[in-house]
Amino acid sequence: MNIEDKLQQAISLYQSGQLQQAEKTCQQILGKYPQHAGAFHLLGIIAYQIGDYRIATGLITQAIKIDSSQCVFFNSLGSALQEQGRLRESIQAFNQALKIQPQFAGAHYNKGNTLQEQGRLEESIEAYQKAIEIEPQFAGAHNNLGNALKERGKLEESIEAYQKAIEIEPQFAGAHNNLGNALKERGKLEESIEACQRAIEIQPQFAGAHYNKGNTLQEQGKLEESIEAYQKAIEIEPDYTDAHNNLGNALREQGRLEEAVEAYQQAIEIEPNYTGAHNNLGNALREQGRLEEAVEACQQAIEIEPDHADAHNNLGIILLLKGNLLQGWKEYEWRWKCSDSLSENRNFPQPPWDRTNLNDKSILIWAEQGIGDEIMFASILSTLSQMTERIIVECDIRLVPLFQHSFPQIQFFSRQNPFHPHLLDKNIDYQIPMGSLGQWFRTDEDSFKQSKQSYLTACVNRSAKIRRRYQKLADGRMLVGISWKSTGINQRRALLKSTVLEDWTSILLHKDCYFINLQYGDVKEELAQFQQQMDLMIYQDEEIDSLQNLDDFAAQVSALDLVISIDNTTVHMAGALGKQVWALLPYIPDWRWMLAREDTPWYPSMRLFRQNETRDWSGVFSQVRSELEQYMVDNVVEGGR
Question: Is 386 a member of any domain?
Answer without folding.
Answer: yes
